[in-house]
Each structure stands twice: as structure tokens, then as C-alpha cells.
Design goal:
Layout (H helix, E strand, L loop, with lengths): L1 H9 L8 E7 L6 E4 L3 H5 L4 H4 L14 H13 L5 E3 L3 E4 L5 E12 L5 E10 L1 H24 L4 E3 L6 E3 L1 H6 L14
Antiparallel strand pairs: 1-2, 1-6, 3-5, 4-5, 5-6, 7-8
Length: about 190
């Protein structure tokens, strides 16, 4: 059955897409049986460096994320009814040395007895999305510090969505603790 996956992965289906596909064997270090041809464009590696075991996939996962990734695979693998899972985003070393944030959705391949033989996963580079989230958090923290330093209160109402925000300082100016007023238009 894994030959079918190898043929699909090596076909032109993924040649120009933004998603790389891997077929891993269920063995220590997750040896790669096949990888899509667009791997070079996305991650900087020729697929053969993984299929020949020149580079071990697991060794390219960021050291701070490797425990999380292994634990997610372990949990999903031990659950006999689990056929697929999605990893929390993790960092993966690009061939040029920098790290990319990946979204990884994996399907578990089992034999007739239920034993896991392979994992098929698709990886999508979400580095730009993560960078935008980090920048947004940074800007919010900077605004919060500025608001605290000036002792000003802030309220904001998004008329389109109905979302309302009252800063903790704004609530304090009215004599309330942050938790005492909800961020709703009714408030």
C-alpha cells in the first residue's frame, strides 16, 4: 500500500504547490520513504537527502520543539482509533540554516493487524503568519505600556463586528477592576 503513496508523492501533483508531502516509515527517527518534488522550493532540500537518510528529518526540528512533536506522534500512535492528527506549529531548519514555522497534518497508515507502518504528512510553511502574530503581540504590548505610562484609558468599538474593548486603565478611571466590566457594547 505504501507504494501507492510513494507514487502519488513523487508524481507532479505537488510539483508546484506550496505544500510538501512526506511518507515516513514507522521507525526511530522517522526515516523518509518518499517526499514531494517541491521540497527544494519550500525547504531548500532535495528530497533524496531524506530518502537516502543523508539527513534525518527529526534532526531538523528545532531543539525546543522536538519533544512536542515526538509527544504528539506518540499520543496519536497509541490511540488505536486515531487515523490522523495535526501538530501544533513547529520550527524546522531550512537547508540555508534558518528556521521555518510549519503546520503539519499527518495521516497514520496501519496494516491489517492495526500496526502502524507509515505516516503520510503534508507540511505548509506558516512562517509569515507566525511573524504577523508575533508583531501584533509586540505592538499590543507596546501600546499597553504606553497607555500605562500616560495613565490614559482607552476604549474601542468595531462597529462592523460589534467587538468592544475597554482597557484596564479606562475601567480603573471609572472605579472598576478589570474583571468587573465585560468588554461588551451593553456595558
Amino acid at each position: 500500500m505504501h507504494h501507492v503513496f510513494e507514487e502519488i508523492i513523487s508524481s507532479q501533483l505537488f510539483e508546484h504547490g506550496s505544500i510538501a508531502v512526506f511518507l515516513w516509515r514507522n521507525a526511530p527517527g522517522w526515516p523518509v520513504a518518499a517526499a514531494s518534488s517541491n521540497l527544494k522550493a519550500l525547504l531548500g532540500y532535495d528530497p533524496s537527502v531524506f530518502t537516502s537518510a543523508t539527513i534525518n528529518y527529526a534532526d531538523q526540528i528545532h531543539p525546543e520543539d522536538v519533544v512536542q512533536v515526538f509527544e504528539e506522534v506518540r499520543r496519536a500512535s497509541e490511540e488505536l482509533t486515531c487515523n490522523a492528527f495535526t501538530h501544533e506549529p513547529y520550527r524546522f531548519r531550512h537547508a540555508q540554516g534558518h528556521y521555518l514555522w510549519l503546520k503539519d497534518a499527518t495521516t497514520i497508515i496501519r496494516d491489517a493487524s492495526g500496526a502502524i507502518t507509515h505516516y503520510v504528512g503534508y507540511l505548509h510553511d506558516i512562517s509569515a503568519e507566525i511573524a504577523m502574530q508575533q508583531e501584533s503581540r509586540f505592538l499590543k504590548e507596546r501600546l499597553d505600556l504606553a497607555m500605562q505610562a500616560t495613565m490614559d484609558g482607552l476604549w474601542d468599538w468595531n462597529v462592523q463586528s460589534g467587538e468592544v474593548y475597554f482597557s484596564p486603565q479606562w475601567k480603573a478611571m471609572l472605579g472598576f477592576a478589570d474583571h468587573e466590566l465585560e468588554n461588551t457594547l451593553e456595558t
